[in-house]
Automatic annotation (TrEMBL), chains A, B:
It comes from Albidovulum litorale. The keyword Lipid metabolism does not apply. SUPFAM superfamilies: Inosine monophosphate dehydrogenase (IMPDH). This is Nitronate monooxygenase. Keywords: Flavoprotein, FMN, Monooxygenase, Oxidoreductase.
């Protein structure tokens, strides 16, 4: 099998140019991605310092390969990015940031010897943060699931960003779910891809079975952009599957926060029995109970291509093999 | 130079898998695209029967190669698609349709021996129209300029459509402006690309120099989706550059039709002195006068990659050469 090695692979110390978006706070999932030759990224934004240290330790027990840790800067700013300092103290080599200006954290990432990776939605923003010192740019297209920063589609955004930051590492994100998307992103000039929705169906990913079933059944048109699930992260656009909560909100004329149908209602419970209100930002995990299908079901437009539950390693191997085969076939056409 | 021949090329009788979106009603432009080995498509929606016959004749004087004629079905339905019948009478071999159900016209296109090509925005719609008999599906992504039918980005839409209509010809549209976009679309499974914005800078394209200058200066984030320019085609989303008219409309809180700033004001004149009101759907052509920069400046998100004025043939040759080079390089990686 071909490896599709790109300069990004060498830079990050990985075998194949596939990064798993931080769709999970599960060390098992993150380690599985890195063990399969890609880059696993831990979602650490909602962790305490102790939880983060424990999670990093749990990843290291399962892999010796590189992994990253992600922070939503807008949500860690109040704590002055204290957990980011924990990740650096623990020697994490790749720090991924999102949703706010990375200027306040770039120097401390570099001072700790780590690589800085930031997600942007435009070529102007890419140029600005590379000038500030960011090492790896994730160009996130409009197709992406979860929180979406920009409004430009991946196919138009990727080459515009590549042209804006010559010499920088660019990763393409949004709508990429199989080897065709990987090949397309590399053709557009990216050094790798950032994949979220596809990995929700990884066997190692701990989402709730009902969420998984909705992902399997959904088409590319079922992942809708809204600001509806704003509990914990207000005024932030995100893409999620149309479910009971979105249907009611749409039927009510898409009212603003505070005036939405059944606002404040507890609809589910986490594994320690904690209540989860409607419009919260938490997606359903496997040990949650209640009306989990009414919780936010993050998904990108690649959901139309996301149908089979497989081990992480098989998802990555299939993606790389398919992309390699496309390049060989097309170079002969 | 490699030719990147695909089954779509053989089916349409063209040399390279590049179709120029119907950005122009100029026979010179359409013939130039076909003479360069791609497929030129004439925009015929706003023509009388006599104008259409004359235009088809003018194309045939300049090329013996295949070309297409495009109709916005929603706008020709009142005349019971009479000009479509004219195109068929004249022996046009490829009829492209958009914006409404193609069911009423597929049989007459086929009865005349022509190929039916229809633009869709989702995999479900692709399946439906292929079942009705459409031969070539144009999968139009959210990045596209001009009128945009769906909400799914090109990178996620193209493979979803390809999977939905196995065996049908699929063309990828939206955000494709260079060889990187062409290579990406082919990697996604398309048999060819449908390119609009890039061809606005063709030397043979007769847009106004001020419109051309705006295209050259614009970034990928400057092409905005709205329903603002609805004169002649109401309630139809379209993507165009942010200009004076859109800025005023945004500043006024994006009011509905009838309540917009300076509505009804004549801002420019066509080549016979006819008035063009603000919010009209007509883009500025080279022989128009007045405040043409306040007219609608259609552009897709590929506008960030669209910077150089070149002959049609050079645009197409560069695109194909760049895509070929990408496949050869990537197959060796």
């Amino acid at each position: 099998m071909q490896q599709l090695q790109t300069p990004l692979c060498h830079y990050l110390g990985i075998d194949v140019p596939v990064i798993a978006a931080p769709v999970s706070a599960s060390p098992v999932f993150v380690a599985a991605v890195s063990n399969a030759g890609g880059l696993g990224v831990l979602q650490a934004t909602w962790m305490t310092a102790a939880e983060l240290r424990q999670s990093i330790n749990a990843i290291r027990q399962r892999t010796e390969r590189p992994f990253g840790v992600n922070f939503v800067l807008a949500l860690t700013a109040e704590q002055k990015h204290a957990t980011l300092d924990i990740a650096l103290e623990e020697g994490v080599g790749i720090i991924s940031t999102f949703w706010a200006d990375p200027a306040p954290v770039i120097d401390r990432i570099h001072d700790a010897g780590a690589i800085s990776c930031h997600t942007v939605g435009s070529s102007a923003e890419a140029k600005r943060v590379v000038d500030l010192g960011v090492d790896v740019i994730v160009a996130q297209g409009f197709e992406a699931g979860g929180h979406v920063w920009g409004e430009v589609g991946t196919l138009a955004l990727t080459p515009a960003v590549v042209d804006a930051v010559p010499g920088a590492h660019v990763v393409s994100a949004g709508g990429i779910a199989d080897g065709r998307g990987l090949a397309a992103a590399l053709a557009l000039g990216a050094g790798g891809v950032w994949v979220g929705t596809r990995f929700l169906l990884a066997e190692e990913c701990n989402i709730h079975p009902e969420y998984r079933d909705r992902i399997i059944a959904a088409r590319e048109t079922d992942a809708m952009m809204s600001e509806a699930f704003d509990g914990g992260w207000p005024d932030a656009k995100h893409r999620s599957l149309v479910n009971e909560t979105l249907e009611r909100w749409i039927a009510a004329g898409r009212p603003a926060s505070g005036q939405r149908p059944n606002e404040g209602e507890v609809i589910a419970f986490d594994d320690s029995g904690g209540p989860i209100p409607r419009y919260d930002l938490q997606e359903p995990l496997e040990n949650m109970t209640g009306n989990v299908a009414a919780m936010v079901l993050y998904a990108g437009q690649g959901v139309g291509l996301t149908n089979a539950r497989l081990p992480v390693a098989a998802i990555i191997d299939n993606m790389v093999a398919e992309a390699s085969e496309i390049f060989v076939r097309m170079s002969a056409s």
